[in-house]
Specification:
Length: 357
């Protein structure tokens, strides 16, 4: 069944989320939230522990339990594995810390050709066995599809080069322009790591994958096309299992939306500044769209949230290829009650049956 996902016991379960990824008919709009695991959930804070998020994510039982928390609380249609985009490069010893409130910090940032030696092939069963183990636990316990994910080579490269979160990406831009060969080698190595990581998650039981190129919109479209797109395309085309839907997401991608799609996505994740109808005008009605409630709006009074949710559902215009989500991740101060309300609103909106069957 195309619109179902397989659990390890071999039974096929129907899923509105998988149907929407494939632009097939289903009764109601599926919804999940980027960064739904962790963040503002009190039950997360209880079992999170005091160490780094990288430690919490390397305990498969705990990672599986955290992954399930938003599914149980909100009734979302998909779970996203509790992990981080920096896990693979951390696991091969690049020297990464994730600092609370800041994000990934690299002790010795990537600077020169010498630093290429600090990267190597990812052997998932040896380097990140806990990722596969967490997904295997979830295949038994999770009632909805589990989304595996990875950072796209560009976004991961930007953290390795800048050494810390940066809005300007000056060092990254300088390296890609001034050292094209080093850039190509770095991006190729990161692409290989990303491909191994995603295929490992799929083999372990992930029912969909999302490639986060969060900062793809921070560079000029022509530069994106030459220096970033080819690698993301290679990653998406190297997914071994063609049954698994591929979601490709970035912030500020309106000018490069067609490239985000033709890189090989089944679903294009859009940010809050890209109205769904504008995205469809660029991409056509065949490809599915994920998004795009502004996470900041979730901090506003509930009437404001309701209006924004209705507006998105209206702009979607009864299209089956829509997965409701935020335009970026859940903000730490978000009231979980607001997200529960968003899920109820989205689920109570009925999709009309397609006349062509
Ligand atoms: O949806 C989920 O929550 C699943 C798990 C998940 C995490 N990170 C856990 C996490 C996912 C999908 C990510 C992806 C991720 N990580 C991205 C891509 C998505 C995006 O936001 O654009 C990026 C850029 C990162 C890098 C990163 N890790 C940042 C910028 C931060 C924020 C630091 C902070 O404290 O605000 C992190 C830390 C992080 N990753 C936390 C969690 C739950 C919070 C820290 C903690 O709990 O210790």
């Amino acid at each position: 069944m195309e619109n179902s996902f397989l659990s390890t016991d071999g039974t096929a379960k129907k899923s509105d989320f998988i149907s929407a990824c494939r632009n097939e008919q289903h009764p109601r709009v599926p919804v999940w939230f980027m960064r739904q695991a962790g963040r503002s959930l009190p039950e997360y804070k209880k079992i999170r522990g005091t160490g780094s998020i990288l430690e919490a994510a390397s305990d498969p039982e705990r990672a599986a339990q955290i992954t399930l928390q938003p599914v149980e609380r909100y009734g979302v249609d998909a779970a996203i594995l509790f992990s981080d985009i920096m896990v693979p490069v951390h696991s091969i010893g690049f020297g990464i810390e994730i600092q609370p409130g800041i994000g990934p910090v690299v002790e010795n940032p990537f600077e020169s050709i010498e630093d290429l030696k600090r990267l190597r092939t990812l052997e998932p069963e040896i380097d990140v066995p806990y990722v596969g183990e967490a997904i295997k636990i979830l295949s038994q316990e999770c009632p909805v599809p589990v989304i595996g994910f990875a950072g796209a080579p560009f976004t991961v490269a930007s953290y390795l080069i800048e050494g810390k979160p940066s809005r300007l990406l000056e060092k990254t831009k300088a390296l890609m322009e001034q050292e094209p060969e080093i850039w190509d080698s770095l991006m190729n190595q990161l692409s290989d790591i990303t491909i191994s990581s995603l295929n490992h998650q799929i083999e372990s039981g992930a029912s969909a994958i999302q490639l986060f190129d969060s900062w793809a919109g921070l560079i000029e479209p022509e530069i994106y096309e030459q220096k970033v797109f080819p690698y993301s395309k290679r990653v998406l085309s190297s997914i071994n299992n063609s049954r698994v839907p591929k979601i490709h997401f970035g912030v500020g991608t309106q000018p490069i939306l067609h490239l985000i799609a033709v890189a090989g996505a089944d679903v294009v994740g859009i940010d809050s500044n890209t109205p769904i109808d504008a995205a469809r005008a660029k991409l056509g009605n065949e490809i599915a769209i994920q998004g795009n409630l502004d996470p900041e709006i979730c901090l506003e009074p509930i009437e404001v949230v309701e209006k924004a949710v209705s507006e998105i559902l209206k702009l979607n215009n009864n299209n089956f290829g829509h997965i409701f989500n935020l335009g970026h991740g859940v903000l730490p101060d978000t009231d979980p009650g607001v997200l529960s309300h968003v899920v109820e609103m989205v689920h109570s909106h009925k999709l009309l049956e397609r006349k062509d069957g």
